[in-house]
Amino acid sequence: MSGRRIDRGRLADMVLAAVVGALGMGAAAFDEDTTALDHTLIALASAALAFHRAAPRAVLAVATVLGTAYVVHAHPGPLSALPVLGAVHTAARVGHRGVAAAGSAVFLAGYVATGPGTQNVAERAGLLAGWFLCAVVTGLADRNWQAYLRQTEQRALEAERTREEVALRRAGEERLRIARELHDSLTHSISIVKLQAGVAVHLARKRGDEVPPALLAIQEASGEAMRELRSALQVLRADEPTGTPALLVERARAAGLAVDLAVTGDERPLPRAVDRAAYRIVQEALTNAARHAGPAKVKVRIGYGTGNEGELTIDVDDDGAADPARPPVPGTGLTGMRERVAALGGTLCAAPRTEGGFSVRARLPLGETA
Fold it and tell me: pLDDT of 197-208, one tens digit each?
Protein backbone atom coordinates (compact mmCIF):
# COMPACT_ATOMS: atom_id res chain seq x y z
CA MET A 1 0.00 0.00 0.00
CA SER A 2 2.82 2.45 0.84
CA GLY A 3 4.52 1.64 -2.46
CA ARG A 4 1.36 2.53 -4.35
CA ARG A 5 1.12 5.85 -2.49
CA ILE A 6 4.74 6.63 -3.33
CA ASP A 7 4.18 5.78 -7.01
CA ARG A 8 1.09 7.98 -7.12
CA GLY A 9 3.00 10.83 -5.49
CA ARG A 10 5.81 10.60 -8.02
CA LEU A 11 3.32 10.45 -10.87
CA ALA A 12 1.55 13.55 -9.52
CA ASP A 13 4.87 15.40 -9.26
CA MET A 14 5.76 14.49 -12.84
CA VAL A 15 2.35 15.63 -14.04
CA LEU A 16 2.78 18.92 -12.17
CA ALA A 17 6.19 19.50 -13.76
CA ALA A 18 4.80 18.63 -17.22
CA VAL A 19 1.80 20.97 -16.88
CA VAL A 20 3.93 23.88 -15.65
CA GLY A 21 6.45 23.24 -18.41
CA ALA A 22 3.73 23.10 -21.06
CA LEU A 23 2.22 26.39 -19.88
CA GLY A 24 5.63 28.06 -19.83
CA MET A 25 6.55 26.72 -23.25
CA GLY A 26 3.17 27.73 -24.64
CA ALA A 27 3.54 31.29 -23.38
CA ALA A 28 7.09 31.49 -24.71
CA ALA A 29 6.01 30.23 -28.13
CA PHE A 30 4.04 33.44 -28.75
CA ASP A 31 7.18 35.50 -28.22
CA GLU A 32 9.16 35.75 -31.43
CA ASP A 33 12.38 36.56 -29.56
CA THR A 34 12.36 33.28 -27.63
CA THR A 35 15.52 31.26 -28.23
CA ALA A 36 16.54 27.66 -27.65
CA LEU A 37 18.29 28.78 -24.45
CA ASP A 38 15.04 30.21 -23.15
CA HIS A 39 13.18 26.95 -23.84
CA THR A 40 15.95 25.04 -22.08
CA LEU A 41 15.72 27.27 -19.02
CA ILE A 42 11.91 26.85 -18.90
CA ALA A 43 12.16 23.07 -19.28
CA LEU A 44 14.80 22.66 -16.56
CA ALA A 45 13.02 24.96 -14.10
CA SER A 46 9.76 23.08 -14.64
CA ALA A 47 11.40 19.63 -14.47
CA ALA A 48 12.90 20.49 -11.09
CA LEU A 49 9.36 20.55 -9.63
CA ALA A 50 9.19 16.78 -10.03
CA PHE A 51 11.60 16.46 -7.07
CA HIS A 52 9.98 18.95 -4.69
CA ARG A 53 9.00 16.26 -2.14
CA ALA A 54 12.56 14.98 -1.73
CA ALA A 55 14.40 18.32 -1.72
CA PRO A 56 12.05 21.34 -1.58
CA ARG A 57 14.78 23.91 -0.83
CA ALA A 58 17.06 22.63 -3.58
CA VAL A 59 14.15 22.67 -6.03
CA LEU A 60 13.32 26.25 -5.02
CA ALA A 61 16.95 27.30 -5.51
CA VAL A 62 17.14 25.69 -8.96
CA ALA A 63 13.78 27.07 -10.10
CA THR A 64 14.65 30.55 -8.81
CA VAL A 65 18.06 30.67 -10.50
CA LEU A 66 16.79 29.28 -13.82
CA GLY A 67 13.61 31.39 -13.75
CA THR A 68 15.54 34.56 -12.97
CA ALA A 69 18.02 33.78 -15.74
CA TYR A 70 15.12 33.31 -18.13
CA VAL A 71 13.45 36.66 -17.34
CA VAL A 72 16.80 38.46 -17.47
CA HIS A 73 17.51 37.01 -20.90
CA ALA A 74 14.09 37.06 -22.54
CA HIS A 75 11.99 39.68 -20.66
CA PRO A 76 8.85 37.44 -20.79
CA GLY A 77 5.38 37.95 -19.34
CA PRO A 78 4.03 36.98 -15.90
CA LEU A 79 3.54 33.30 -16.85
CA SER A 80 7.30 32.90 -16.72
CA ALA A 81 6.97 32.84 -12.92
CA LEU A 82 5.01 29.56 -12.83
CA PRO A 83 7.97 27.23 -12.03
CA VAL A 84 9.14 29.55 -9.25
CA LEU A 85 5.59 29.91 -7.93
CA GLY A 86 5.26 26.14 -7.70
CA ALA A 87 8.60 25.84 -5.92
CA VAL A 88 7.70 28.64 -3.48
CA HIS A 89 4.38 26.95 -2.64
CA THR A 90 5.96 23.55 -2.00
CA ALA A 91 8.75 25.05 0.12
CA ALA A 92 6.26 26.98 2.27
CA ARG A 93 4.13 23.83 2.53
CA VAL A 94 6.91 21.99 4.39
CA GLY A 95 7.69 24.96 6.65
CA HIS A 96 10.52 26.78 4.83
CA ARG A 97 8.86 30.20 4.94
CA GLY A 98 12.05 32.24 4.95
CA VAL A 99 13.51 30.37 1.98
CA ALA A 100 10.22 30.72 0.08
CA ALA A 101 10.13 34.48 0.72
CA ALA A 102 13.77 34.84 -0.30
CA GLY A 103 13.18 32.97 -3.56
CA SER A 104 10.18 35.15 -4.31
CA ALA A 105 12.18 38.32 -3.65
CA VAL A 106 15.08 37.22 -5.88
CA PHE A 107 12.81 36.42 -8.80
CA LEU A 108 10.79 39.64 -8.43
CA ALA A 109 14.01 41.67 -8.24
CA GLY A 110 15.26 40.08 -11.46
CA TYR A 111 11.91 40.61 -13.16
CA VAL A 112 11.70 44.29 -12.21
CA ALA A 113 15.38 45.01 -12.98
CA THR A 114 15.09 43.70 -16.52
CA GLY A 115 11.98 45.60 -17.48
CA PRO A 116 12.65 49.32 -17.18
CA GLY A 117 11.68 49.88 -20.78
CA THR A 118 8.74 47.55 -20.77
CA GLN A 119 5.27 49.04 -20.48
CA ASN A 120 3.27 48.32 -17.34
CA VAL A 121 6.23 46.58 -15.71
CA ALA A 122 5.20 47.94 -12.31
CA GLU A 123 1.70 46.49 -12.70
CA ARG A 124 3.09 43.15 -13.73
CA ALA A 125 5.54 43.14 -10.83
CA GLY A 126 2.68 43.91 -8.42
CA LEU A 127 0.63 41.09 -9.92
CA LEU A 128 3.53 38.68 -9.53
CA ALA A 129 4.09 39.83 -5.95
CA GLY A 130 0.46 38.98 -5.19
CA TRP A 131 0.89 35.58 -6.81
CA PHE A 132 3.97 34.83 -4.73
CA LEU A 133 2.24 35.97 -1.56
CA CYS A 134 -0.68 33.66 -2.35
CA ALA A 135 1.76 30.80 -3.01
CA VAL A 136 3.39 31.27 0.41
CA VAL A 137 0.07 31.66 2.23
CA THR A 138 -1.56 28.65 0.56
CA GLY A 139 1.55 26.58 1.26
CA LEU A 140 1.42 27.46 4.96
CA ALA A 141 -2.35 26.87 5.07
CA ASP A 142 -1.90 23.46 3.47
CA ARG A 143 0.84 22.60 5.97
CA ASN A 144 -1.34 23.61 8.92
CA TRP A 145 -4.28 21.67 7.53
CA GLN A 146 -2.20 18.51 7.10
CA ALA A 147 -0.87 18.92 10.65
CA TYR A 148 -4.43 19.35 11.93
CA LEU A 149 -5.57 16.20 10.12
CA ARG A 150 -2.64 14.20 11.52
CA GLN A 151 -3.32 15.50 15.03
CA THR A 152 -7.03 14.73 14.74
CA GLU A 153 -6.31 11.21 13.54
CA GLN A 154 -3.79 10.67 16.34
CA ARG A 155 -6.29 11.91 18.93
CA ALA A 156 -8.97 9.62 17.56
CA LEU A 157 -6.64 6.63 17.70
CA GLU A 158 -5.52 7.58 21.20
CA ALA A 159 -9.10 8.02 22.38
CA GLU A 160 -10.04 4.63 20.96
CA ARG A 161 -7.02 3.00 22.57
CA THR A 162 -7.81 4.71 25.88
CA ARG A 163 -11.40 3.49 25.77
CA GLU A 164 -10.21 -0.05 25.11
CA GLU A 165 -7.69 0.13 27.94
CA VAL A 166 -10.27 1.49 30.37
CA ALA A 167 -12.80 -1.15 29.33
CA LEU A 168 -10.25 -3.94 29.74
CA ARG A 169 -9.11 -2.57 33.10
CA ARG A 170 -12.68 -2.30 34.37
CA ALA A 171 -13.51 -5.77 33.11
CA GLY A 172 -10.43 -7.15 34.85
CA GLU A 173 -11.24 -5.35 38.09
CA GLU A 174 -14.82 -6.64 37.95
CA ARG A 175 -13.61 -10.21 37.44
CA LEU A 176 -11.26 -9.89 40.38
CA ARG A 177 -14.06 -8.45 42.51
CA ILE A 178 -16.32 -11.35 41.60
CA ALA A 179 -13.49 -13.77 42.39
CA ARG A 180 -13.03 -12.20 45.81
CA GLU A 181 -16.77 -12.32 46.52
CA LEU A 182 -16.97 -15.96 45.49
CA HIS A 183 -13.94 -16.81 47.56
CA ASP A 184 -15.22 -14.98 50.64
CA SER A 185 -18.81 -16.23 50.49
CA LEU A 186 -19.26 -19.49 48.57
CA THR A 187 -15.92 -21.01 49.52
CA HIS A 188 -16.63 -20.45 53.19
CA SER A 189 -20.17 -21.85 52.98
CA ILE A 190 -19.19 -24.93 50.98
CA SER A 191 -16.28 -25.57 53.32
CA ILE A 192 -18.69 -25.57 56.28
CA VAL A 193 -21.01 -28.02 54.50
CA LYS A 194 -18.13 -30.33 53.66
CA LEU A 195 -16.77 -30.12 57.19
CA GLN A 196 -20.14 -30.88 58.79
CA ALA A 197 -20.77 -33.79 56.44
CA GLY A 198 -17.30 -35.18 57.19
CA VAL A 199 -17.87 -34.93 60.95
CA ALA A 200 -21.26 -36.68 60.65
CA VAL A 201 -19.74 -39.51 58.59
CA HIS A 202 -16.89 -39.89 61.08
CA LEU A 203 -19.24 -40.05 64.10
CA ALA A 204 -21.53 -42.55 62.41
CA ARG A 205 -18.63 -44.86 61.62
CA LYS A 206 -17.23 -44.44 65.13
CA ARG A 207 -20.52 -45.56 66.64
CA GLY A 208 -20.72 -48.47 64.23
CA ASP A 209 -23.83 -47.13 62.54
CA GLU A 210 -24.46 -47.39 58.85
CA VAL A 211 -23.60 -44.11 57.12
CA PRO A 212 -26.65 -42.78 55.24
CA PRO A 213 -26.06 -42.67 51.47
CA ALA A 214 -27.39 -39.09 51.38
CA LEU A 215 -24.70 -38.00 53.83
CA LEU A 216 -21.97 -39.61 51.73
CA ALA A 217 -23.43 -37.92 48.63
CA ILE A 218 -23.37 -34.55 50.42
CA GLN A 219 -19.71 -35.06 51.39
CA GLU A 220 -18.70 -36.02 47.85
CA ALA A 221 -20.75 -33.25 46.22
CA SER A 222 -19.32 -30.59 48.51
CA GLY A 223 -15.78 -31.72 47.70
CA GLU A 224 -16.53 -31.63 43.97
CA ALA A 225 -18.08 -28.16 44.36
CA MET A 226 -14.91 -26.93 46.07
CA ARG A 227 -12.76 -28.20 43.20
CA GLU A 228 -15.00 -26.60 40.58
CA LEU A 229 -15.08 -23.33 42.49
CA ARG A 230 -11.28 -23.22 42.60
CA SER A 231 -11.17 -23.77 38.84
CA ALA A 232 -13.67 -20.95 38.31
CA LEU A 233 -11.60 -18.62 40.49
CA GLN A 234 -8.49 -19.43 38.46
CA VAL A 235 -10.35 -18.50 35.27
CA LEU A 236 -11.57 -15.22 36.76
CA ARG A 237 -8.05 -14.34 37.85
CA ALA A 238 -6.48 -15.25 34.51
CA ASP A 239 -6.25 -11.57 33.47
CA GLU A 240 -3.44 -10.82 35.89
CA PRO A 241 -0.42 -9.24 34.14
CA THR A 242 2.41 -11.38 32.89
CA GLY A 243 5.86 -9.95 32.32
CA THR A 244 8.32 -7.67 34.05
CA PRO A 245 8.98 -3.92 34.18
CA ALA A 246 12.03 -4.56 31.99
CA LEU A 247 9.75 -5.99 29.31
CA LEU A 248 7.53 -2.92 29.55
CA VAL A 249 10.59 -0.70 29.06
CA GLU A 250 11.59 -2.66 25.96
CA ARG A 251 8.08 -2.30 24.52
CA ALA A 252 8.13 1.44 25.19
CA ARG A 253 11.49 1.77 23.43
CA ALA A 254 10.17 -0.17 20.46
CA ALA A 255 7.24 2.27 20.32
CA GLY A 256 9.67 5.23 20.07
CA LEU A 257 9.83 6.40 23.70
CA ALA A 258 13.32 7.19 25.05
CA VAL A 259 13.45 5.16 28.28
CA ASP A 260 16.34 4.27 30.60
CA LEU A 261 15.99 1.51 33.21
CA ALA A 262 18.10 1.23 36.37
CA VAL A 263 17.72 -1.53 38.97
CA THR A 264 19.37 -1.32 42.40
CA GLY A 265 19.57 -3.88 45.17
CA ASP A 266 19.36 -7.65 44.91
CA GLU A 267 16.67 -8.49 42.36
CA ARG A 268 14.56 -11.39 43.64
CA PRO A 269 11.04 -12.85 43.44
CA LEU A 270 8.42 -10.54 44.91
CA PRO A 271 5.18 -11.27 46.72
CA ARG A 272 2.47 -11.87 44.17
CA ALA A 273 0.45 -8.77 45.01
CA VAL A 274 3.55 -6.54 45.04
CA ASP A 275 4.72 -7.96 41.71
CA ARG A 276 1.34 -7.21 40.07
CA ALA A 277 1.22 -3.71 41.53
CA ALA A 278 4.78 -2.91 40.39
CA TYR A 279 3.97 -4.08 36.87
CA ARG A 280 0.81 -1.96 36.69
CA ILE A 281 2.52 1.13 38.14
CA VAL A 282 5.36 1.03 35.59
CA GLN A 283 2.88 0.27 32.79
CA GLU A 284 0.61 3.19 33.66
CA ALA A 285 3.53 5.61 34.17
CA LEU A 286 5.06 4.76 30.78
CA THR A 287 1.65 4.99 29.09
CA ASN A 288 1.06 8.44 30.56
CA ALA A 289 4.56 9.57 29.54
CA ALA A 290 4.02 8.42 25.97
CA ARG A 291 0.59 10.06 25.87
CA HIS A 292 1.20 13.38 27.58
CA ALA A 293 4.93 14.11 27.92
CA GLY A 294 5.64 14.63 24.22
CA PRO A 295 9.20 13.98 22.93
CA ALA A 296 10.58 13.45 26.43
CA LYS A 297 13.18 11.21 28.05
CA VAL A 298 11.96 8.84 30.74
CA LYS A 299 13.99 7.29 33.57
CA VAL A 300 12.69 4.20 35.36
CA ARG A 301 14.42 3.24 38.62
CA ILE A 302 13.49 0.15 40.62
CA GLY A 303 15.10 -0.49 44.00
CA TYR A 304 14.91 -3.71 46.02
CA GLY A 305 15.12 -3.21 49.77
CA THR A 306 16.94 -5.61 52.08
CA GLY A 307 15.32 -7.94 54.58
CA ASN A 308 11.68 -8.79 55.13
CA GLU A 309 11.02 -5.28 56.41
CA GLY A 310 12.38 -3.62 53.27
CA GLU A 311 10.40 -2.01 50.50
CA LEU A 312 10.29 -1.92 46.73
CA THR A 313 10.85 1.59 45.34
CA ILE A 314 9.60 2.56 41.88
CA ASP A 315 10.54 5.94 40.41
CA VAL A 316 9.44 6.98 36.90
CA ASP A 317 10.53 10.50 35.90
CA ASP A 318 10.20 12.31 32.57
CA ASP A 319 11.32 15.74 31.40
CA GLY A 320 8.15 16.43 29.42
CA ALA A 321 5.77 19.38 29.35
CA ALA A 322 4.10 18.95 32.76
CA ASP A 323 3.95 22.19 34.77
CA PRO A 324 3.90 22.27 38.62
CA ALA A 325 1.60 25.30 38.44
CA ARG A 326 -1.00 23.21 36.59
CA PRO A 327 -1.22 19.78 38.22
CA PRO A 328 -3.17 17.24 36.16
CA VAL A 329 -6.62 16.06 37.14
CA PRO A 330 -6.26 12.45 38.39
CA GLY A 331 -7.74 10.07 35.87
CA THR A 332 -8.54 6.38 35.97
CA GLY A 333 -4.89 5.39 35.69
CA LEU A 334 -3.58 7.51 38.58
CA THR A 335 -6.58 6.56 40.73
CA GLY A 336 -5.98 2.88 40.04
CA MET A 337 -2.31 3.23 40.99
CA ARG A 338 -3.18 4.91 44.27
CA GLU A 339 -5.72 2.22 45.13
CA ARG A 340 -3.25 -0.58 44.40
CA VAL A 341 -0.53 1.03 46.50
CA ALA A 342 -2.91 1.84 49.37
CA ALA A 343 -4.19 -1.75 49.42
CA LEU A 344 -0.61 -2.94 50.02
CA GLY A 345 0.07 -0.36 52.73
CA GLY A 346 2.49 1.61 50.56
CA THR A 347 2.78 5.24 49.49
CA LEU A 348 2.48 6.90 46.10
CA CYS A 349 3.39 10.40 44.91
CA ALA A 350 2.44 11.31 41.32
CA ALA A 351 2.84 14.98 40.43
CA PRO A 352 4.71 17.42 38.15
CA ARG A 353 8.36 18.02 39.04
CA THR A 354 9.63 21.46 40.04
CA GLU A 355 12.24 21.32 37.27
CA GLY A 356 9.63 20.33 34.70
CA GLY A 357 8.18 17.01 33.66
CA PHE A 358 6.25 14.45 35.67
CA SER A 359 7.28 12.08 38.45
CA VAL A 360 5.75 8.89 39.83
CA ARG A 361 7.24 7.57 43.08
CA ALA A 362 5.86 4.43 44.71
CA ARG A 363 6.99 2.68 47.89
CA LEU A 364 5.67 -0.85 48.39
CA PRO A 365 6.38 -2.94 51.54
CA LEU A 366 7.96 -6.25 50.56
CA GLY A 367 7.19 -8.42 53.56
CA GLU A 368 7.60 -12.13 52.97
CA THR A 369 8.52 -13.07 49.40
CA ALA A 370 6.21 -15.28 47.43
Answer: 888 888 888 888
